[in-house]
Fold:
Amino acid sequence: MINDEAKTFEVLKHDIAKYFPIRVVLRKTDDGKLQGLCEDSFSMSCVDNRVRIWWSGKAYSMLGEHILNGIADATHNMREGDILVDPLSEDCPITIDWERWTNATSKYDKRNAHFKLRDAE
Structure:
């Protein structure tokens, strides 16, 4: 599991603290496999190696400024049986590719980060 020192390094290295609190939503398939809930253009889907990062803070759109609440937004998009996780917590079963997510250029990549299962590392 990720220890406090490694977690602190990831936060500082990728400057993700400005998005806290953050959450991800994971879903188990019928065969027990974990998938990440992802935001597509106008719908949600579950993907084997991607997950939507629900972040908090100020956001801007053509409608103006918005204050996002990552925990509330993630919870709102969950189904029964889904797992709500802080991706930097000790018990999170996935590892996010923070480098790739923070450097994303496409809208889909900025919403949905790549991940690996911790057991597969």
